[in-house]
Amino acid sequence: MEETFEPQILAFCCKYCAYAAADLAGSMRLNYPANVKIIQVPCTGRVDVIHILKAFESGVDGVFVAGCLEGECHFLKGNLMAKRRVNQAKEILRSVGLEPERCEMFNLSSAMGVRFAEIAREMTQRIKELGPSPLRDKVKPDSLKKFLEYPIAA
Ligand code: FES
Q1: Among residues 3, 50, 99, 104, which is most buried (max CB within 10 A)?
Q2: What domain range includes position 57?
Q3: Measured from the CA of 16, which atom of ligand 1 is nearest?
Q4: Is the CB of residue 15 less than 8 Å from the CB of residue 140?
Q5: Is 110 among the domain residues?
Q6: Residue 62 in contact with ligand 1 by CB distance below 6 A
């Protein structure tokens, strides 16, 4: 594993909870790694398996989906659907030889800024231990930029 490996991690964050928690973490000046890029989604139910796989295909080393606490999704079951899809994505990652631990689902409330910072640190540490995604060197340099322009938040 490279000493200097800095993972690129993508976080799909529900605007009602995880995104607000990330914002709170920022306001509280909590320290968390800059490795995590956040995509705000209206609900984690908007995140499909293909979005997660496309993120990996664009060269990121890890992905997490962060939604409202179970029972508190503003669209009732969006976070439960997301949980199922994250598990499906893990299975697909495993089947193509990528570690399923590169992908995770978290639940938190908008008041959990401290927890958001912890999650960002946990995922960064986890991916550092796993090392770079084997897909990283096989993608075009602007793949992640293009992926980030994809209108998932619409
Ligand atoms: Fe937050 Fe559905 S509204 S996960």
Answers
A1: 104
A2: 9-149
A3: 1
A4: no
A5: yes
A6: no
